[in-house]
Amino acid sequence: MCGIAGYLGFREAYPIVINGLQRLEYRGYDSAGIVLVNEDKLTIHKTKGKVSDLKELVINKNTEANLALGHTRWATHGIPNNINSHPHISNSGNLVIVHNGIIENYNTLKKELLTRGYTFQSETDTEVLVNLIEEVKTRKNCKLGKAVQLALKSVVGAYAIAVVDVNATDEVIVARLGSPIAIGIGANNSEFFVASDASPFIEYTKDAVYLEDGELAIIKKEEDIVIRKINDDSLVEPDIQELQLNLEQIEKGGYDHFMLKEIHEQPNAILDTYRGRLLVDQDIIKMGSVDNNIAKFLNAKRIIIVACGTSWHAGLVAEYLFEDLARIPVEVEYASEFRYRNPIINKDDVVIAISQSGETADTLAAIKLAKSHGAFVFGVCNVVGSSIARETDTGAYTHAGPEIGVASTKAFTTQITVLTLIALKLGNLKGELSNSQFHKYIQEMSLIPSKVAETLKVNAIVEEIAAIYKDAPNCLYLGRGYNFPVALEGALKLKEISYIHAEGYPAAEMKHGPIALIDESMPVVVIATKKGHYDKVVSNIQEIKSRKGKIIAVVTEGDTIVKDLADHTIEIPFSEEAFTPLLATIPLQLLSYHIAVMRGCNVDQPRNLAKSVTVE
Ligand code: AGP
Predict the structure, then answer these.
(1) Ligand 1 mean position, distance from CA 409 (Å)
(2) Which residue has the higher pLDDT, 614 or 101?
């Protein structure tokens, strides 16, 4: 996700917009840019790096303007560099745009525009959009607002945009589908603010309109804002709200911590990650980096996964996915061990490196080792242009947006999303999954964002459970099959943000020692969802109960058997066994979050930890 900030009014626009961008850097910080609009001139300054680098770039330059649009980028298409930075300008030099979102059909649109003589400087989907708007405006000989509306009708994807025409510098056109945009309204329409959230303008006005999906706004100085529906041009009565949030609350989306915000972002993060890849209506999974290397994947004798921490847990889920759905042998390695143990790596091995930050030193070293043995290395990263993204032969990005909380949450579920898509695609191509099985899986995958949103409703129940166990000295997490890695991940979450010692085990492993730990002071979190060796897990629960362990069970909604056995049950929606990790992990994220808050821990920056471990 990216940050947009704009101003139209009587004040100097530059300081308002640049400060607004700094407040939006939690949304992305790969590059930053601003366009200053005067009577007949668009002046664009943009650079790779942070907003502070943009400020450096603009020092001693004329920044006078009463209209400006700014952007801080989280790269999705095109690596972070000056050319790919926003704002983007149309071929004529008349139109300029800032955009947050993903245009899925930008390649198709770009090809069409190329045939019409348009040229492109950047690799971005945004530059395609601004030229599409220009093409429509020219062909229809219409005003900017109508051109934007008509152009957006042929766009597939998500966007929040602000567009300006140098020949009409008293207005800004704003539109939204899938990405947030707020419009701050000054007294008597004397000034307007446009931003991804209200943080850039909260000190200037508390009156704001939040565009809804499919809406376009025409903002003109000294006039009432006009809002229309993009699809049918019908007028929408602006819903002007008086904001009650303070600055810090706005940056965290109204949540108390970035971690909680990011837990709740998971439905959209998963949706954004499979957007343009999971094409249910065409019954296909489209992933260029996999398609272009499909022989390597299909001929792989083995997949080696290298990662650390939560990403290593995602790798363990992938082991079940690839072996279950695509029948490809998998080895999952701690990158820190792999890099030093002189491993056997063959040329027909496919190595998958998983990393949220794309900067983890051990994972980077493991990649280099694998490449030195001639293996093909595929990256799953959340940061475009990161070291790991550049070092791997190719890869697929998660589109989780920046993950600010040190404890990884949406990165974990979006990593699993990418890996699930690959496993399903390979399983179908290898004939391990029939077309009907494949179709059933991708149908269910398309329901996962809504099922994750449904699962998030357990928050209140989990908070009550957290209050009971917040002072427990230890905690065990148990799961079987696909849910064994989820148990490990749940234990890591609790450890790293509440500092309670926790361990994850395969549920059946209890009898080989850990069961000696069970007594009435030991809370045991058991993932006991339907399918997934359910009956065996019920037996494990009974073993724990007979030793007076306190059982917190994550069950499939409607479960009655475990409900009678466990001290607490948390119900999650039913899904395919292979997709259960995407749902079962949510209550465990919330449990660790609430316990940490109740223990007064620093949830977003836990002691001794860093968001990216760039050292050995
Ligand atoms: C997880 O909550 C931790 N923040 C940590 O284990 C993290 O997953 C690990 O350091 C790997 O980071 P990466 O995904 O950026 O490579």
Answers:
(1) 10
(2) 101
Sign of CA dihedral 230, 235, 237, 242: positive
For a mutational test of ligand 1's pocket, the pick from 263, 311, 612, i.e. the residue with the most ligand atoms closer than 8 A to its C-beta, is: 311
pLDDT tens digits, 161-184: 999 999 999 999 999 998 889 999
Cα of 15 to ligand 1 centre, how many Å?
36
> Position of tokens 């939690």?
26
Q: Quick: pLDDT tens for 183-195.
A: 999 999 999 999 9
Ligand 1 site residues (CB inside 6 A) read 308-311, 355-357, 360, 363, 406-408, 496, 612-613
DSSP assignment of 16-57: HHHHHHHHTGGG--SEEEEEEEETTEEEEEEEES-HHHHHHH
What's the sign of the alpha-carbon dihedral 466, 468, 474, 478? negative
pTM assigned to the model: 0.82
The H or E element spanning position 274 is helix 266-274
| Cβ atoms within 10 Å, residue 431 | 9
Instruction: Judge whether 2 counts as a catalytic residue.
Output: yes
Question: Ligand 1: distance of its center to the CA of 281 in Å?
Answer: 35
Nearest CA to ligand 1 atom 9: 309
Which of ligand 1's atoms lies nearest the C-alpha of 406?
4
Q: Which pair of tokens denotes residue 409?
A: 């949450």
- Residue pointed to by tokens 């000696």: 516
Whether 142 is catalytic: no
Q: How many CA atoms lie within 13 A of 359 on its CB side?
A: 11
Atom of ligand 1 nearest to the CA of 309: 6
Backbone region of residue 481 per phi and psi (left: phi > 0; alpha: psi in -120 to 50; beta: other values): left
- d(C-alpha 574, C-alpha 583), whole Å: 9
In a 13 Å sphere around the CA of 113, the CA atoms on its Cβ side amount to 25
Q: Give the orientation angle of helix 410-429 with respect to helix 580-598, to 10 degrees.
A: 170
Bridging pattern class, strands 349-355 and 302-307: parallel
What average pLDDT does this structure show over 329-340? Answer: 97
Q: Above pLDDT 70, what percent of the chain?
A: 100
State the distance from the centre of ligand 1 to the C-alpha of 251, rounded, in angstroms: 23
Minimal-distance CA residue to ligand 1 atom 5? 309
Distance 529 CA to ligand 1 centre (A): 26
Strands in 337-393 per DSSP E:
349-355, 376-381
